[in-house]
Amino acid sequence: MLKLPAKRGLTWEVPVRNGSGKRVGSGGSKTVVGEEEVATPAGKFMAVRVEFGPGEGVQPWSTEWWAPGRGKVKDDNGGSGIVLKSFSPGK
To answer: E strands, the chain, where?
Structure first.
C-alpha cells in the first residue's frame, strides 16, 4: 500500500506475515520517488511513483504509481505488471 502523506524520500519497511498474520520478517522497503504523469488505457494521471526493493542504491524489484482518488494505476515489475484499464467513480 501507499503510506500517506506521500512525500519524496519517504521510506517504509514492508513486513512479511505468516498465515495467522504474525509478522515474521521484512520483505524489503518502499520509497516515494516523486510525482509524475503516467499514461494508462484509462487515461493520464498525475501519480506518486513508489519503488519497491531491497534498499537504497539497488535496482528496485518493482515500481508502482498511485493516483489520488484512483489508487494504484500502474505496477511494473520488469516482466509483467498491472495497469488501470478503466475507472468509474462510485455513487
So the answer is: 11-17, 23-40, 43-53, 62-67, 71-76, 81-83
| Tens digits of residue pLDDT in 76-88 | 987 778 899 998 8
**Gyration radius (Cα) of the chain, Å:** 14
Domain containing 60: what range?
A: 27-79
* pLDDT, tens only, 6-34: 899 998 888 777 888 787 767 788 899 99
Give me the number of domains the chain comprises. 1
Cα(26)–Cα(12) distance, rounded to whole angstroms? 10
